[in-house]
Amino acid sequence: MIELDDLKQGAVERLAREEVLAVRVRHFIDKDIAARLSEQIMERGLQKYLNAPSIGRIGMAFYEAENQPPLIANYFESVFDNINELRKRCAPYVSPIDLLRCVLDELWSAGAQLQTLYGRKMYVGLSRAVKPGVTFLAHHDIFAKDAPNSFQACSLQAQMAANVYLSMPDEGGTLQIWDQQLSAEAFDKMRGDSYGIDPTLLGAATLEVCPEAGDLILFNSRKMHAVTPGSEGVRLSLSCFVGYRGPATPLSFWS
Which residue has the higher pLDDT, 127 or 92? Predict the structure, then answer.
């Protein structure tokens, strides 16, 4: 893992080339501002994941649509309402996801832009609240699996997850990443009807990172990853995916 005070293009390139599993930027957001943002976001309540009801969120993740046309339609119809909802909850502060998009656009030579799919802009900025005692099961995130037969998804050379942490439990809430990759078929067979699998089935994690409020962590989302249960406090993060198609091509964002 690379640890930085400021995000650098070279670190993103190393992550995309799978030379490292994760990049951590400490204090990406001031800790006091992170605490205020957490209060503002949480006080208006959260929805539940369709396929992970123990985890609260703002916005709909594209993978929740599970290739079902009605759910895909719902996803695209709510894109800008959900983006604006997060901005309203963050005001008068800048949304950390907007800040991340701006920073990556500036540091990446080819720029960075919102991902389009099926001719429409995708949502970015999923917020996720994990209550004490809840394990975020081991899973991987692969755009080509969520959008099969899509050139935009299949053209990715690497897919990274970006998490900005606004609050952390007193103990636990550790991000676990395994270096090995499971095929989509093997993972689906293991998980059954669940969104993920018991992390103990994968053995010891290759990397464990316990973030602090205000930190940004980017990691290879195609690798299996999980979050340990926390105690005494909600783990709230804002997240998106960052797509890489080579050093001369713009990065892309979606959730």
Answer: 92
